[in-house]
Prior knowledge:
The protein is mainly alpha-helical. Helices cover 77% and strands 7% of the residues. The chain has helices spanning 2-29, 31-37, 43-106, 118-125, 132-136, 140-175, 182-226, 230-233; strands at residues 235-243, 246-254. The protein contains eight helices and two strands, in the order H-H-H-H-H-H-H-H-E-E. The longest helix is centred in the first third of the chain and has 64 residues, at 43-106.
Amino acid sequence: xxxxxxxREETRGTRASFERVMxxxxxxxxxDQWLEDNPQGTREDFQKDxxxxxxxxxxxxxxxxxxxxxxxxxxxxxxxxxxxxxxSLLWLGGTHVYNVMDALASSQAFHDDQERRPTVAGxxxxxxxxxxxxxxxxxxSKAGLVFMTxxxxxxxxxxxDYLRTQAENQLLAIEQSETLSPGQIEIYRTEWRNRQxxxxxxxxxxxxxxxxxYMYGIFDAVVDAHLHDIxxxxxxxxxxxxxxxxxGLRLELKF
Length: 255
């Protein structure tokens, strides 16, 4: 914020300087006014003075334009930092929800051995963000994990898409500008294109992560529904018994 404030002050200063140059050089750009100050001057002398005045005005204008362009870059940097803070808050909130759900799961207060239908679990888990398939299976810890991960990844993708839009708007404005010099356009077009590509790549990455974890949530809910009573259907128990004149160890596997 301090850097942005300093940049804004510099922009206002260069604009004021540009206006002063325009006012001072105005008489050198108007032949009648110039002739009043130079009664012995010729048209050729006026043309020379007007070229110099035009160059000085243009130099002041370029300085002002550069200050504006730098201010836009600093404003974007502030927005980027603010979105980074939002991303951190997303992780903080998501982790809190996961911890609450994990604590509820550890309490065993909602545990039961009722039959689960994989189709229902899959359909419920197809609803994004809520982890309903895991809630249906009474896997509250996993439900918190699904909520945290899907919500945070979606938030990250949204924030980076917002930054991408901001960068693309600035890039388009520079490319369509009729007042910037070719050198300015080339320099700042490269600056904004690099920023746009960076946040676009991050946005796409988090979208892919979200889709993968969304599919995982459905798969996990269906599998857990199939295996809801695995502890009752498959047991491995030792049975120590005396057989004839020797002792043996028997393992019994029940399905």
